[in-house]
Design brief:
It contains 14 helices and eight strands. The protein is mainly alpha-helical. The strands form three sheets. A three-stranded antiparallel beta sheet has the order 1-2-3. A three-stranded antiparallel beta sheet has the order 4-5-8, with no helix packed on it. It has a two-stranded antiparallel ribbon with strand order 6-7.
Length: about 400
Protein backbone atom coordinates (compact mmCIF):
# COMPACT_ATOMS: atom_id res chain seq x y z
CA UNK A 1 0.00 0.00 0.00
CA UNK A 2 1.38 3.44 -0.95
CA UNK A 3 2.43 5.75 1.85
CA UNK A 4 -0.22 8.49 2.40
CA UNK A 5 1.01 11.97 1.41
CA UNK A 6 1.95 14.53 4.01
CA UNK A 7 -0.82 16.99 4.89
CA UNK A 8 -0.40 20.29 3.05
CA UNK A 9 1.83 22.71 4.97
CA UNK A 10 3.56 20.00 7.06
CA UNK A 11 6.92 18.24 6.93
CA UNK A 12 8.30 14.79 7.62
CA UNK A 13 11.16 13.47 9.71
CA UNK A 14 14.19 15.78 9.93
CA UNK A 15 17.57 14.26 9.05
CA UNK A 16 20.91 15.69 10.22
CA UNK A 17 24.14 15.30 8.19
CA UNK A 18 27.65 16.54 8.94
CA UNK A 19 29.19 18.16 5.84
CA UNK A 20 32.85 17.89 4.76
CA UNK A 21 33.33 21.53 5.78
CA UNK A 22 32.47 20.66 9.38
CA UNK A 23 29.10 22.38 9.28
CA UNK A 24 25.85 20.48 9.71
CA UNK A 25 22.86 20.26 7.42
CA UNK A 26 19.28 19.44 8.39
CA UNK A 27 16.87 18.24 5.70
CA UNK A 28 13.26 17.11 5.40
CA UNK A 29 10.41 16.76 2.95
CA UNK A 30 7.83 19.56 2.98
CA UNK A 31 4.49 19.44 1.21
CA UNK A 32 3.83 22.88 -0.24
CA UNK A 33 0.50 24.55 -0.78
CA UNK A 34 0.54 23.58 -4.47
CA UNK A 35 0.43 19.93 -3.35
CA UNK A 36 4.02 19.17 -4.35
CA UNK A 37 6.47 17.67 -1.86
CA UNK A 38 9.91 19.26 -1.90
CA UNK A 39 13.23 18.72 -0.14
CA UNK A 40 14.03 21.63 2.20
CA UNK A 41 17.41 22.09 3.90
CA UNK A 42 19.17 24.43 6.33
CA UNK A 43 22.69 24.58 7.76
CA UNK A 44 24.23 25.45 11.12
CA UNK A 45 27.34 25.11 13.22
CA UNK A 46 25.93 22.01 14.90
CA UNK A 47 23.25 19.46 14.17
CA UNK A 48 20.89 21.07 16.68
CA UNK A 49 21.54 24.55 15.26
CA UNK A 50 20.88 23.34 11.73
CA UNK A 51 17.61 21.71 12.83
CA UNK A 52 16.48 24.85 14.66
CA UNK A 53 17.19 26.92 11.54
CA UNK A 54 15.27 24.44 9.41
CA UNK A 55 12.23 24.43 11.71
CA UNK A 56 12.11 28.24 11.70
CA UNK A 57 12.25 28.25 7.91
CA UNK A 58 9.58 25.59 7.66
CA UNK A 59 7.32 27.50 10.05
CA UNK A 60 7.68 30.64 7.95
CA UNK A 61 7.10 28.60 4.81
CA UNK A 62 3.95 27.11 6.32
CA UNK A 63 2.60 30.59 7.00
CA UNK A 64 2.51 32.66 3.83
CA UNK A 65 0.43 35.75 3.24
CA UNK A 66 -1.26 34.14 0.24
CA UNK A 67 -1.47 30.68 1.70
CA UNK A 68 -4.58 28.89 2.83
CA UNK A 69 -5.69 29.43 6.39
CA UNK A 70 -5.81 26.20 8.39
CA UNK A 71 -7.02 25.17 11.79
CA UNK A 72 -3.43 25.51 13.02
CA UNK A 73 -3.18 29.17 11.96
CA UNK A 74 -2.77 31.34 15.03
CA UNK A 75 -5.27 34.09 15.78
CA UNK A 76 -2.59 36.79 15.41
CA UNK A 77 -1.76 35.47 11.93
CA UNK A 78 -5.45 35.32 11.02
CA UNK A 79 -5.87 38.91 12.20
CA UNK A 80 -3.05 40.14 9.99
CA UNK A 81 -4.39 38.25 6.98
CA UNK A 82 -7.86 39.68 7.55
CA UNK A 83 -6.51 43.24 7.86
CA UNK A 84 -4.53 42.78 4.65
CA UNK A 85 -7.67 41.57 2.91
CA UNK A 86 -9.87 44.51 3.89
CA UNK A 87 -7.10 46.98 3.07
CA UNK A 88 -6.84 45.43 -0.39
CA UNK A 89 -10.60 45.57 -0.93
CA UNK A 90 -10.78 49.31 -0.26
CA UNK A 91 -14.01 50.97 0.84
CA UNK A 92 -12.89 51.54 4.42
CA UNK A 93 -11.23 54.73 5.64
CA UNK A 94 -7.61 54.61 6.77
CA UNK A 95 -8.74 55.88 10.17
CA UNK A 96 -11.27 53.02 10.43
CA UNK A 97 -8.64 50.38 9.67
CA UNK A 98 -6.26 52.06 12.13
CA UNK A 99 -8.99 51.78 14.76
CA UNK A 100 -9.44 48.08 13.94
CA UNK A 101 -5.69 47.53 14.32
CA UNK A 102 -5.69 49.25 17.69
CA UNK A 103 -8.56 47.19 19.09
CA UNK A 104 -7.04 43.95 17.78
CA UNK A 105 -3.54 44.77 19.08
CA UNK A 106 -4.55 45.94 22.56
CA UNK A 107 -7.76 44.05 23.32
CA UNK A 108 -7.74 40.79 21.35
CA UNK A 109 -4.20 39.57 20.67
CA UNK A 110 -2.85 39.85 24.25
CA UNK A 111 -5.44 37.27 25.31
CA UNK A 112 -6.15 35.17 22.19
CA UNK A 113 -3.23 35.87 19.87
CA UNK A 114 -1.33 32.61 20.43
CA UNK A 115 -4.37 30.35 20.18
CA UNK A 116 -4.80 28.37 16.98
CA UNK A 117 -8.02 28.95 15.07
CA UNK A 118 -9.30 25.46 15.88
CA UNK A 119 -8.64 26.08 19.59
CA UNK A 120 -11.00 29.08 19.81
CA UNK A 121 -14.06 27.12 20.87
CA UNK A 122 -17.47 28.58 21.63
CA UNK A 123 -16.84 28.35 25.37
CA UNK A 124 -13.45 30.13 25.11
CA UNK A 125 -14.89 32.82 22.86
CA UNK A 126 -17.89 33.28 25.14
CA UNK A 127 -15.67 33.63 28.21
CA UNK A 128 -13.49 36.17 26.41
CA UNK A 129 -16.45 38.32 25.33
CA UNK A 130 -17.94 38.29 28.83
CA UNK A 131 -14.60 39.39 30.28
CA UNK A 132 -14.41 42.15 27.66
CA UNK A 133 -17.86 43.35 28.71
CA UNK A 134 -16.58 43.69 32.29
CA UNK A 135 -13.19 45.14 31.39
CA UNK A 136 -14.05 47.50 28.51
CA UNK A 137 -17.85 47.61 28.13
CA UNK A 138 -17.66 50.37 25.54
CA UNK A 139 -15.42 48.24 23.32
CA UNK A 140 -17.06 44.84 23.83
CA UNK A 141 -19.35 45.11 20.81
CA UNK A 142 -16.46 46.17 18.54
CA UNK A 143 -14.27 43.34 19.88
CA UNK A 144 -16.95 40.75 19.19
CA UNK A 145 -17.59 42.16 15.73
CA UNK A 146 -13.93 42.08 14.73
CA UNK A 147 -13.51 38.50 15.92
CA UNK A 148 -16.65 37.50 14.02
CA UNK A 149 -15.29 38.98 10.77
CA UNK A 150 -11.88 37.37 11.27
CA UNK A 151 -13.34 33.93 11.94
CA UNK A 152 -15.72 34.28 9.00
CA UNK A 153 -12.55 34.41 6.92
CA UNK A 154 -11.38 31.17 8.55
CA UNK A 155 -14.72 29.54 7.67
CA UNK A 156 -14.36 30.68 4.04
CA UNK A 157 -10.95 28.98 3.93
CA UNK A 158 -12.49 25.82 5.44
CA UNK A 159 -10.17 26.02 8.43
CA UNK A 160 -13.22 25.58 10.67
CA UNK A 161 -16.78 24.53 9.88
CA UNK A 162 -18.59 26.90 12.19
CA UNK A 163 -17.84 30.42 13.38
CA UNK A 164 -17.87 30.15 17.19
CA UNK A 165 -18.64 33.86 17.55
CA UNK A 166 -22.17 33.35 16.23
CA UNK A 167 -22.99 31.30 19.33
CA UNK A 168 -21.48 33.48 22.06
CA UNK A 169 -23.39 35.70 24.43
CA UNK A 170 -25.07 38.81 23.11
CA UNK A 171 -23.28 42.04 23.99
CA UNK A 172 -25.64 44.25 25.94
CA UNK A 173 -25.00 47.83 24.88
CA UNK A 174 -26.55 50.26 27.31
CA UNK A 175 -28.15 53.15 25.46
CA UNK A 176 -27.36 56.42 27.19
CA UNK A 177 -30.11 58.97 27.41
CA UNK A 178 -29.55 61.84 24.99
CA UNK A 179 -28.77 65.10 26.73
CA UNK A 180 -29.15 68.42 24.97
CA UNK A 181 -28.36 71.92 26.21
CA UNK A 182 -30.92 74.52 27.12
CA UNK A 183 -30.89 77.96 25.54
CA UNK A 184 -29.68 79.33 28.88
CA UNK A 185 -26.73 76.92 28.90
CA UNK A 186 -25.88 77.88 25.33
CA UNK A 187 -25.74 81.53 26.36
CA UNK A 188 -23.35 80.69 29.22
CA UNK A 189 -21.11 78.80 26.82
CA UNK A 190 -21.13 81.51 24.17
CA UNK A 191 -20.23 84.18 26.74
CA UNK A 192 -17.50 82.03 28.29
CA UNK A 193 -15.86 81.25 24.95
CA UNK A 194 -15.80 84.91 23.93
CA UNK A 195 -14.30 85.91 27.30
CA UNK A 196 -11.70 83.13 27.41
CA UNK A 197 -8.11 84.41 27.78
CA UNK A 198 -9.25 88.01 27.48
CA UNK A 199 -7.63 90.62 29.79
CA UNK A 200 -8.98 90.60 33.34
CA UNK A 201 -10.12 93.56 35.45
CA UNK A 202 -6.48 94.50 35.98
CA UNK A 203 -5.92 94.65 32.23
CA UNK A 204 -3.58 91.67 32.25
CA UNK A 205 -4.10 88.73 29.94
CA UNK A 206 -3.30 85.13 31.00
CA UNK A 207 0.05 83.82 29.70
CA UNK A 208 0.11 81.98 26.40
CA UNK A 209 -0.64 82.77 22.76
CA UNK A 210 -3.09 85.60 22.15
CA UNK A 211 -6.70 84.43 21.76
CA UNK A 212 -8.53 84.42 18.44
CA UNK A 213 -12.19 84.30 17.49
CA UNK A 214 -11.75 80.84 15.98
CA UNK A 215 -13.21 78.70 18.76
CA UNK A 216 -16.12 81.05 19.37
CA UNK A 217 -16.90 81.12 15.64
CA UNK A 218 -16.58 77.34 15.34
CA UNK A 219 -19.09 76.89 18.16
CA UNK A 220 -21.43 79.36 16.47
CA UNK A 221 -21.24 77.19 13.34
CA UNK A 222 -22.01 74.10 15.44
CA UNK A 223 -25.12 75.87 16.68
CA UNK A 224 -26.09 77.18 13.23
CA UNK A 225 -25.72 73.88 11.39
CA UNK A 226 -25.68 70.89 13.74
CA UNK A 227 -22.73 69.63 11.66
CA UNK A 228 -19.99 67.34 12.96
CA UNK A 229 -16.78 68.99 14.16
CA UNK A 230 -14.71 67.80 11.19
CA UNK A 231 -17.45 68.86 8.77
CA UNK A 232 -17.38 72.40 10.17
CA UNK A 233 -13.57 72.53 10.07
CA UNK A 234 -13.62 71.35 6.43
CA UNK A 235 -15.82 74.24 5.21
CA UNK A 236 -14.18 76.26 2.43
CA UNK A 237 -15.07 79.70 1.10
CA UNK A 238 -16.38 78.04 -2.07
CA UNK A 239 -18.86 76.04 0.03
CA UNK A 240 -20.44 79.25 1.35
CA UNK A 241 -22.96 81.32 -0.62
CA UNK A 242 -23.52 84.75 0.91
CA UNK A 243 -24.84 86.69 -2.09
CA UNK A 244 -28.48 85.58 -1.83
CA UNK A 245 -31.42 86.48 0.38
CA UNK A 246 -30.64 83.48 2.55
CA UNK A 247 -27.03 82.43 2.98
CA UNK A 248 -26.19 78.75 2.59
CA UNK A 249 -23.31 76.39 3.31
CA UNK A 250 -22.73 73.07 1.58
CA UNK A 251 -21.29 70.30 3.73
CA UNK A 252 -19.16 68.70 1.04
CA UNK A 253 -16.23 67.16 2.89
CA UNK A 254 -14.65 66.27 6.20
CA UNK A 255 -11.19 66.30 7.78
CA UNK A 256 -9.21 63.26 8.85
CA UNK A 257 -5.74 62.60 10.25
CA UNK A 258 -3.48 60.54 8.00
CA UNK A 259 -0.25 59.07 9.32
CA UNK A 260 2.70 60.87 7.79
CA UNK A 261 0.52 63.58 6.22
CA UNK A 262 -1.24 65.20 9.17
CA UNK A 263 -4.73 66.59 8.77
CA UNK A 264 -6.12 66.37 5.24
CA UNK A 265 -9.50 67.17 3.70
CA UNK A 266 -11.50 64.27 2.35
CA UNK A 267 -13.63 65.55 -0.57
CA UNK A 268 -16.72 63.68 0.61
CA UNK A 269 -18.41 63.79 4.03
CA UNK A 270 -18.98 60.81 6.30
CA UNK A 271 -21.87 59.28 4.32
CA UNK A 272 -23.74 60.00 1.09
CA UNK A 273 -26.59 61.54 3.08
CA UNK A 274 -24.09 63.81 4.85
CA UNK A 275 -23.58 65.79 1.63
CA UNK A 276 -26.14 68.54 2.06
CA UNK A 277 -26.75 72.26 1.62
CA UNK A 278 -27.99 74.07 4.72
CA UNK A 279 -29.68 77.44 4.93
CA UNK A 280 -27.91 79.56 7.52
CA UNK A 281 -29.44 81.76 10.22
CA UNK A 282 -28.40 85.41 10.03
CA UNK A 283 -25.93 85.17 12.93
CA UNK A 284 -23.93 82.54 11.05
CA UNK A 285 -24.08 84.44 7.75
CA UNK A 286 -22.78 87.58 9.46
CA UNK A 287 -20.00 85.56 11.10
CA UNK A 288 -18.84 84.10 7.78
CA UNK A 289 -19.00 87.50 6.08
CA UNK A 290 -16.86 89.01 8.85
CA UNK A 291 -14.27 86.23 8.56
CA UNK A 292 -14.16 86.64 4.78
CA UNK A 293 -13.34 90.32 5.22
CA UNK A 294 -11.05 90.17 8.27
CA UNK A 295 -9.14 86.87 7.91
CA UNK A 296 -6.21 86.78 5.48
CA UNK A 297 -6.65 84.39 2.54
CA UNK A 298 -5.00 80.97 2.72
CA UNK A 299 -3.87 78.45 0.13
CA UNK A 300 -6.52 75.96 1.23
CA UNK A 301 -9.44 78.34 0.78
CA UNK A 302 -10.51 77.22 4.26
CA UNK A 303 -12.76 79.20 6.57
CA UNK A 304 -10.84 77.92 9.62
CA UNK A 305 -7.09 77.22 9.61
CA UNK A 306 -4.31 76.70 12.13
CA UNK A 307 -1.82 79.47 12.88
CA UNK A 308 0.42 77.88 10.23
CA UNK A 309 -2.25 78.02 7.55
CA UNK A 310 -2.97 74.28 7.60
CA UNK A 311 -6.28 72.55 8.24
CA UNK A 312 -7.33 73.00 11.84
CA UNK A 313 -6.94 69.84 13.92
CA UNK A 314 -10.13 68.77 15.70
CA UNK A 315 -8.03 67.44 18.60
CA UNK A 316 -6.73 70.95 19.30
CA UNK A 317 -10.24 72.37 19.20
CA UNK A 318 -11.44 69.72 21.63
CA UNK A 319 -8.48 70.34 23.96
CA UNK A 320 -9.18 74.08 24.15
CA UNK A 321 -12.88 73.45 24.68
CA UNK A 322 -12.11 71.05 27.55
CA UNK A 323 -10.23 73.84 29.36
CA UNK A 324 -13.18 76.20 29.02
CA UNK A 325 -15.90 73.75 29.99
CA UNK A 326 -14.03 72.88 33.18
CA UNK A 327 -13.94 76.55 34.14
CA UNK A 328 -17.70 76.95 33.73
CA UNK A 329 -18.71 73.62 35.30
CA UNK A 330 -20.06 72.05 32.10
CA UNK A 331 -17.66 69.12 31.84
CA UNK A 332 -20.28 66.91 30.18
CA UNK A 333 -20.60 69.07 27.06
CA UNK A 334 -18.62 67.79 24.07
CA UNK A 335 -18.72 69.17 20.50
CA UNK A 336 -21.24 66.43 19.67
CA UNK A 337 -23.68 67.83 22.25
CA UNK A 338 -24.13 70.92 20.06
CA UNK A 339 -25.27 68.55 17.30
CA UNK A 340 -27.74 66.90 19.67
CA UNK A 341 -28.99 70.28 20.86
CA UNK A 342 -29.69 71.45 17.31
CA UNK A 343 -31.48 68.18 16.52
CA UNK A 344 -33.62 68.47 19.65
CA UNK A 345 -34.64 72.08 18.95
CA UNK A 346 -35.55 71.33 15.32
CA UNK A 347 -37.50 68.22 16.31
CA UNK A 348 -39.56 70.19 18.82
CA UNK A 349 -40.48 72.75 16.15
CA UNK A 350 -40.59 70.78 12.88
CA UNK A 351 -40.39 67.07 13.66
CA UNK A 352 -37.76 64.34 13.42
CA UNK A 353 -37.69 64.25 9.59
CA UNK A 354 -36.51 67.86 9.51
CA UNK A 355 -33.93 67.14 12.21
CA UNK A 356 -32.61 64.15 10.26
CA UNK A 357 -32.30 66.22 7.08
CA UNK A 358 -30.37 68.93 8.93
CA UNK A 359 -27.94 66.42 10.46
CA UNK A 360 -27.48 64.42 7.26
CA UNK A 361 -29.10 61.18 8.41
CA UNK A 362 -30.86 58.79 6.04
CA UNK A 363 -33.29 57.65 8.72
CA UNK A 364 -35.23 59.81 11.20
CA UNK A 365 -35.21 56.84 13.59
CA UNK A 366 -31.43 57.17 13.99
CA UNK A 367 -31.81 60.86 14.73
CA UNK A 368 -34.63 60.26 17.19
CA UNK A 369 -32.79 57.51 19.08
CA UNK A 370 -29.30 59.00 19.28
CA UNK A 371 -29.63 62.78 18.88
CA UNK A 372 -32.93 64.00 20.30
CA UNK A 373 -33.47 64.49 24.01
CA UNK A 374 -36.67 62.85 25.06
CA UNK A 375 -39.25 65.10 26.65
CA UNK A 376 -40.80 63.88 29.91
CA UNK A 377 -43.66 66.36 29.69
CA UNK A 378 -46.68 64.90 27.93
CA UNK A 379 -48.66 67.08 25.48
CA UNK A 380 -51.61 68.98 26.97
CA UNK A 381 -54.55 66.65 26.37
CA UNK A 382 -56.78 68.05 29.09
CA UNK A 383 -59.32 69.76 26.80
CA UNK A 384 -59.74 66.66 24.62
CA UNK A 385 -60.11 64.40 27.65
CA UNK A 386 -62.65 66.78 29.16
CA UNK A 387 -64.63 66.87 25.93
CA UNK A 388 -64.59 63.14 25.30
CA UNK A 389 -64.59 61.56 28.73
CA UNK A 390 -66.24 63.86 31.28
CA UNK A 391 -69.23 62.39 33.14
CA UNK A 392 -72.67 63.81 32.48
CA UNK A 393 -73.61 66.25 35.27
CA UNK A 394 -75.78 64.65 37.95
CA UNK A 395 -79.34 65.91 38.31
CA UNK A 396 -79.89 67.78 41.60
CA UNK A 397 -81.87 65.81 44.17
CA UNK A 398 -85.63 66.58 44.38
Amino acid sequence: MARPPLPVGTWGKIRRTELPSGRWQAATRFRDYDGKTREVTAQGGSGAAAERSLVIGLSNRAYQADADITGDTRIRQLAELWLEEIEGEGGREDTTIANYRGVIAYSILPVLGDLRVKELTVSRADRFVKEAMKRTPGQASRIKGLLTWMLDMAVRHEAIRHNPMTSVTKVNTRHKAVRAMTEGQLKVIRDAVRAWRQPGPDGRRPPGPPPTDDLADIIEMFIATGARINEVLAIRDEDVELGTDKATVTISGTLKSVKGKGVVRKPTPKTDASFRTLTLPDFAANLLLRRRVECPPNDLGAVFTSRNGTWKNASNVRRTWREIRLEIGMEWVTPHHFRKTVATIIERELGSKAAAAQLGHTSPSVTHRHYIEQSHVAPDMSEMLQRRLAREPLEPPK
